[in-house]
Structure formats: structure tokens, C-alpha cells
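Now for today's protein.

===
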Amino acid sequence: MFEIRIVTENDVEQLQAISVETFSDTFGAQNQPDDLAEYLANAYSQQQLRLELAQVDSWFYFLWVDAELAGYLKLNINQAQSEQATKNSLEIERIYLRKAYQKRGLGKVLLEYAQQEAKNQSKSVIWLGVWEHNDNARAFYQKMGFVAFDQHEFVLGQDVQRDILMQRQL
């Protein structure tokens, strides 16, 4: 049994904890500890998360499975998007599952939720950025119908990395 619900400012401590946990689990082994620590301190500070939660065209959602926090999703439209990559689009800026909840079909659940939100917002394209070295995620998105269309830089601490931008028509 799962539930997806909107994250509010009252949830900022939980949001920070799951953000740091899932980002570290996903990218920690492939990056320098100092770069990772700098990124986590800046990107996932409570102050930064509160600013993001207050953004009019951004929304965070928690995924609960059997009353346990399993993952989260961040969606952006309009000027809140990290890139103005495509017209009439919704960006999935973050989509993360805790390790214990991976490989259970929950990534698909979150993607389908994002797709429905895009349709609710009358968007015709859904897109995201994925690290070029995250082969599992890239393969998953391809399986879900996303195709690469561009790239952008992602700065992790002092390390400039490359994200592949992928989109799916709705």
C-alpha cells in the first residue's frame, strides 16, 4: 500500500534527511567526499529546502509505503525549471527512492504520478536530467519512453559533471 502526498514546510526535517540519505547512497561512492559534503551542505540545507518549498511553480511529494517514507519527487514548471529546455514542459528535478524500496516498481509509480501532474498542468512534455555515469537510471528512463535531447553541467562541490537531459512527449 502506497500513498503520495505533498511536502509542506512542516516536513522540512524529513525532506532534508531523505534528500541527504538518497543522494549520498546514489552518488557517494563515485564522487570525492569533500565534493559530496560541500554539495549536501548547500543543496540540502534546511534554509535552501525552505526556499525551494516556497517556490510557486515547484512541488515536492513524499512517497509512503506501509506508513514508511520510501522516497520523494520534486517537480517544476515555468520559470522554476532548472533549464528552459523545452516548451510547455514539466521538469522532474529530483526523483529518489531509499535503497530498501528500489527495484520494487516504485520509480515507475513516481514517474506516472509526475506524468499525471504534467497533464493536470496541461503540459505536453516531461523531462529530467540524469548523470551521464548513472547507467541504471538512464536505462530505466529509456525503458519508460524518455529520449536524450541535450545536456547540461551539474556542479558537485568543485567537480563539474555532465547530465544528460531526457524527455518524453505526453
